[in-house]
Amino acid sequence: MSISDNESMISPEGHRSGFACFVGRPNAGKSTLTNALVGSKVAITSDKPQTTRHAIRGIVHRDDAQLVIVDTPGLHRPRTLLGQRLNDVVRETWAEVDVIGLCVPANEKVGPGDKFIANELSKVAKRTPVIGVVTKTDLAKPEQVAEQLVALQDVMEFAELVPVSAVDGFQVNTLADLFVARLPEGPQLYPGGELTDEPEATLVAELIREAALDGVRDELPHSIAVAVEEMGPREGRDDLVDIYAFLYVERSSQKGIVLGHHGERLKKVGAEARRHIEALLGSKVYLNLHIKVAKDWQRDPKQLRRLGF
Ligand SMILES: Nc1nc2c(ncn2[C@@H]2O[C@H](COP(=O)(O)OP(=O)(O)OP(=O)(O)O)[C@@H](O)[C@H]2O)c(=O)[nH]1
Ligand SMILES: [Mg+2]
After folding, report:
1. What is the pLDDT of residues 51-78, one digit of tens each?
2. Closest ligand 1 atom, residue 52 Cα
3. Pairing state of beta strands 130-135 and 99-105?
4. Where is this region: G4 (predicted)?
5. In whole angstroms, what is the distance from residue 38 CA to residue 49 CA?
6. Which of 23, 182, 222, 246 has the highest count of CB atoms within 10 angstroms of its CB?
7. What DSSP element (H or E) covers 244?
8. Domains and CATH numbers, the chain
């Protein structure tokens, strides 16, 4: 076998690889779309704004390409230090990828938030192609989708515009094709079958946070953070993983809400999270979940650092 044959095994002729990121205002459907593209839940989702708090990589494996999707936090007007940090993550991410997808929901008018982001992206677009992605088409009438595509043409010059639905799968593969077409030729970046490079403990903490977000309102979703303190197989058992995690809130009044009457709410959150964690780890899980007050952590650099921001 010649050297060139050998090389072509590592990186077959025409094989592409690289990074695409989703940006958009909170709740635009970026994480749900990331999961739909990857075909597995790598990012948590919720109807609360600012669910995503770091750049999450999801990997799409195809015969012709390896596409790494980077899901980012929703870009927003920051009111806390955490908010500023999240926005920084978005800008750092879009500066590094091969192609950007700007997500705007089909069922909401193009607003100042979308225009603000588009305006910033216009500066990046000279270097990096930006694809306009109209999300959640299943929630809009076809006329509304068409109107949204037209409205988006006014906010910036896109390399492409595509309507998709992560829920019914409409054009999800088309979007993958559009991304892949803009990746450079190159070999696989991740081993076959790897869907994300998120550490297991992070995925677990996120699943707990997702369960905790369900049913809370107003400021509380923003105040919740979760950290896994300890995680490992129970001694002498290969079918049971022990997980000790802290659920942080910012004020003691919030602690009561998360706990619920006689701790009922927290129990439900734990049970729901455990179901998802067991599916993720493929084993039984004992989850020990404790609430802690970390006063105003969203505004405190020291506490933010401790929580990984
Ligand atoms: N019907 C429908 N709902 C969707 C679709 N995509 C997302 N959603 C819903 O929209 C809400 C927000 O979705 P996310 O994927 O968490 O949004 P996001 O843009 O990642 O939000 P942040 O992380 O806060 O920036 C959730 O309730 C999703 O279930 C879709 O294609 N169709
Ligand atoms: Mg998200």
Report:
1. 999 999 999 999 999 999 999 999 999 9
2. 23
3. parallel
4. 135-138
5. 22
6. 23
7. strand 240-249
8. 3-180 (3.40.50.300), 200-306 (3.30.300.20)
